[in-house]
């Protein structure tokens, strides 16, 4: 099975964002959400690595982040961090949906 490196990089990006939010603004909420969603994204990447059709946790994680961070971006108008995470999560969601469209290889 191929390792979902893009998924693991996305998970690291999400976790790092939460840690940076805590370090810069003292936001415990950012830390908790970043670590939780980063962990969920990493588990999702692991599941995809084991079975490329097992995308549901990754869809849920990236979809939730795309919506939540998208709303924060619309309210704040600031690209960092909300706009960036909206873009990254949206691209991840698109990638996963395209993976579902590909024919399954044995």
Residues in β-strands, percent: under 5%
Question: Between the first and last Cα atoms, what is the distance in angstroms?
Answer: 10 Å
Q: Main sheet?
A: none
Radius of gyration: 14 Å
Structural class by sheet pairing and helices = mainly alpha
Order of helices and strands: HHHH
Total number of helical segments? 4
* Strand elements, count: 0
Average per-residue pLDDT, rounded, comes to: 93
Query: What would you call the shape?
Result: globular
The low-confidence parts are none
Helix content: over 70%
Give a verbal description of the structure.
There is one protein chain. With 106 residues, the protein is an all-alpha fold. The chain is 83% helix and 0% strand. It has 4 helices and no strands. It has helices spanning 5-25, 28-50, 56-76, 79-101. Helix 1 runs antiparallel to helix 4. The longest helix is centred in the middle third of the chain and has 23 residues, at 28-50. The protein is globular. The model has no long low-confidence stretch (mean pLDDT 93).
Describe the structure concisely for a colleague.
The chain is mainly α and 106 residues long.
Keywords:
106 residues, mainly alpha, 4 helices, globular
Task: Give the helices and strands, then pairings.
Blueprint: H1 5-25, H2 28-50, H3 56-76, H4 79-101
Helix pairs in contact: 1-2, 1-4, 2-3, 3-4
